[in-house]
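Apologies for my clumsy wording, but could you write out the amino acids of a protein and the tokens describing how it folds?
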Amino acid sequence: IDWYGDALRLQRNSSHLDLPEFRPALENASQQASEAELLKLLSALENLRTDLNSNVSEGLALERGFLAAYS
């Protein structure tokens, strides 16, 4: 989640990064993905975290998370 958040911050020219040691890779990711794509990935990961913290099948939660993120 921090990774995609930092990629979004770089797109907005923010000086704060949660993972500054990965700045070169983050700059690359922020240039390759659109804001909408990064927001979709962030949302999917947050939903996955919520699902994994609830009483659902881990396998189903992971499948749903990957489908939401990459479809």
